[in-house]
Write a structure and sequence with these properties.
The protein is mainly α. It is built from 18 helices and 6 strands.
Length: 431
């Protein structure tokens, strides 16, 4: 550690002790203007054997205990680095060098699990309902939901999940270590929008280290730190993924993508379903999405794809309104056709559509008159030869009378043909 950095840290340690209570808010607002302080504090935390580590941890705890929101956020920005220091020392089995860091983390944990009156907090979370709109979905885009008796009974009811009360912890053990660290990451994620780029980078880096140390992927990442495998839990990885998702969408696309892949790699090895679900969901949302990699400053946000509103839905979409309009239109057309058929006179020919290209007219009895080459017409039921014996003039008789006349003429013609053929045979026999 350089002497200049050491001087910055020592000055920071001394000036807060002399501040009156009325000047704490103004002092908290002025910390962001000290550009050299945060990098110097990171160097102190990373050096486990630094003589300034213990007073720095004590000062950070005083900041958090003061209750000033800006001072609490100042302490929280170092939480990823503090977690890595604790886990790396625990993996190296050298707990004597992390006593002050353990005290700081346990102090923050014990302060957060109780309210101002000292009563244990019970955290609550409302499970989203598909029947109510949110920033993630629109109920109208899902489609009609079955109105069953159970659905009606649960309509308007919200399911709330509770967590807590949590127990006070005096020291870290193998059983409670990740319970405490997971809760601390939950507190860190609650203030993600206030974290600096340096803190987000530290979160991504320690996420990769925790997940790949001791595995073949460590050689791919070319990390030359400790090579001991660290035990993790699914809940701990889920909290890491929450911070990584925010970093991905707020200027840390490269580090965030690597951290996401490393966490998914570890979740696959450990078969953690919760971490796999959250990690794969984040990865699928990043495919084809424009990350805000060039806007490290400005508003902090997580990109969410909003369901299209009704104005963006295609006009050709099949809806209940369009089906109703189609039915009314079809009903109106059928009424017009029936009115036209009733208005047509009985003896007027009705035009017929021919698919053979031969023009014809439809008669009231259902037969058609086809046009001949000489301009005359003949019924479908007669041959060309028989049509010459029938008058070509339009007929106005009833359908039954016309049918009987046609059949009578055919029978007379057959009788004449039989008689002529009979007389001819008798004449040949006489000769």
């Amino acid at each position: 550690m350089l002497a200049m950095d050491q001087g910055v840290v020592e000055e920071w340690l001394s000036e807060y002790k002399t501040l009156p209570d009325s000047a704490v808010s103004a002092y908290a607002a002025s910390l962001k203007d000290k550009g050299a302080l945060v990098p110097a504090l990171y160097k102190v935390i990373r050096e486990n054997y630094s003589e300034l580590l213990e007073p720095v941890c004590h000062q950070l705890f005083e900041f958090y205990r003061s209750g000033e929101p800006q001072l609490q956020r100042f302490t929280l920005q170092f939480l990823p680095e503090l977690l890595w220091s604790l886990l790396s020392v625990s993996a190296a089995r050298d707990p004597h060098t992390s006593g002050c860091i353990e005290a700081l983390l346990l102090g923050i944990y014990n302060l957060e699990i109780v309210d101002k009156d000292g009563q244990s907090k019970v955290l609550s979370f409302t499970v989203p309902s598909l029947s109510k709109p949110s920033v993630y979905h629109e109920p109208s885009a899902i489609g009609s939901m079955a109105l069953t008796e159970g659905a009606l009974a649960n309509h308007g009811l919200s399911r709330v999940v509770y967590s807590g009360p949590l127990l006070q912890r005096e020291n870290f053990t193998a059983q409670n270590r990740f319970e405490v660290l997971t809760f601390l990451l939950l507190c860190y994620n609650a203030a993600l929008s206030y974290m600096s780029s340096t803190s987000l980078q530290s979160l991504c880096q320690i996420s990769s280290r925790v997940c790949i140390c001791g595995y073949p992927r460590q050689q791919i990442r070319r990390y030359k730190g400790i090579s001991t495998r660290m035990t993790v839990t699914s809940e701990f990885l889920v909290q890491l993924l929450t911070g990584i998702h925010y970093a991905l969408c707020n200027g840390e696309a490269e580090l965030g993508s690597k951290a996401l892949d490393d966490v998914l790699y570890r979740a696959q090895l450990e078969l953690f379903p919760e971490a796999l679900l959250v990690g794969n969901a984040i990865k699928s949302t990043q495919q084809g999405a424009a990350l805000k990699s060039n806007t490290k400053e400005g508003a902090r946000s997580i990109q969410v794809e909003i369901t299209p509103t009704a104005s963006r839905i295609s006009r050709n979409a099949v809806t209940s309104l369009s089906i109703r309009g189609h039915r009314w239109k079809r009903h109106a057309e059928s009424q017009e056709v029936s009115v036209d058929s009733e208005a047509a006179p009985g003896g007027v020919a009705i035009p017929d559509i021919s698919v053979t290209g031969v023009s014809s007219e439809r008669m009231p009895n259902g037969e058609s008159l086809r046009a001949r080459s000489d301009g005359r017409t003949y019924p479908d039921g007669e041959t060309l030869g028989g049509a010459s014996d029938v008058s070509p003039e339009p007929r106005s008789h009833e359908s039954s009378t016309r049918g009987q006349e046609v059949r009578r003429q055919k029978s007379v013609r057959r009788m004449l043909e039989n008689e002529s053929s009979g007389s001819a045979s008798i004449g040949r026999s006489q000769h």
